[in-house]
Amino acid sequence: MTDADESGADDAAEVPAPADRADDVDERAAVAAAAARAGAALANEHFRSDIDVETKGEDDDVVTEADRAAQRTVIETIRESFPDDAVVGEEEDERKIVPDEGAAWVIDPIDGTHNYVRDIPVWATAVAAVVDGEPVAAAIVAPALGDTYTATPAGAFRNGDPISVSDVSDPRRGVVDPTIWWEHDARDEYARACEAIVSRFSDMRRLGAAQVVLPTVAAGGFEGTITNLRANPWDTVAGVFVIRQAGGRVTDLDGNRWRHDSTGLVASNGDLHEEVLAAARAIEELD
Question: Which positions bind Mg(2+) 1 (predicted)?
């Protein structure tokens, strides 16, 4: 680790400030919020309905027409203001890799589709505006929970009110979520993640929607969240930006600053980062 990593310094300070990478950040923030609200509103119209559920890839990876329709709505809203920007999205034929140069949008129309189809209200629509591979604004709307999270260069907010990570520094008071999903042939890693958390911290929660978990860390509800997997950008980029703007820290398994193509994701309130990082490393017995 670098000296900055060992000191627990805010990893957001390691890259140029968002305002230095785009001269239209305020507009991008407004469009991110409008697009997330529009997609979430459409998805919410079909929530707890008899909408058909399909599988894609693995048998436990589900999708609905609401996912596709919400994504189209998000993209249409973005295109009204930024018609030429790249879009990285989970569904349909959108690109899957965040470009390292230029402007792009990273979107997830329904993060937590498993919850959505089981009538559990823990799901969200997430939109991140990215410039040169780094987020400059984000919005996450969880309509069934009544929460909207936004992040701009000015900070992080829930329903318009400023939020910040918790100040818990004692692991015995900490709560951590094992996020993302371990496939059936990696359930030993899932089990180690759970054991690593409950043996180090006060308790464990699993919400089943990374783009709800991440802003929950940002707002102080959890002290951290971990995975050893390389997460999809649509599951993470918006929420990571919210955490950083709320004063938290996000790294990979090596303790280096997390970015959209990192392996592993370790997010914390900062004060407990070394303990949260140790739990993440234990998943692969790296600790």
Answer: 108, 110-111, 235
**pTM for this model (two decimals):** 0.91
Token readout for 156 is 């992080």
Q: Is 110 annotated as a binding residue?
A: yes
Coil, strand, or helix at residue 203? strand
- Residue 187: both structure tokens together: 């359930």
Nearest to 23 by CA among 149, 153, 126: 153
Domain boundaries along the sequence of the chain: 3-15+165-283, 18-162
Tell me the per-residue pLDDT of 146-192, one tens digit each, with 9 for 90 and over: 999 999 999 999 999 999 999 999 999 999 999 998 888 888 999 99
Task: Give the pLDDT score at 21.
Answer: 57
| Count helices and strands in the chain by DSSP H and E runs | 8, 14
Per the annotation, does 108 bind a ligand?
yes
CATH number of 3-15+165-283: 3.40.190.80
Taking alpha carbons only, the member of 281, 214, 260, 283 closest to residue 105 is 260
Q: What is the pLDDT of residues 240-276, one digit of tens each?
A: 999 999 999 999 999 999 999 999 999 999 999 999 9
Task: Confirm or deny that 75 is annotated as ligand binding.
Answer: no
Q: Is 119 annotated as a binding residue?
A: no
DSSP 185: G
Per the document, the length of the chain is: 287
Kindly report the CATH class assigned to 18-162: alpha beta
pLDDT given for residue 94 in this prediction: 67
Q: Which two tokens stand for residue 190?
A: 């899932």
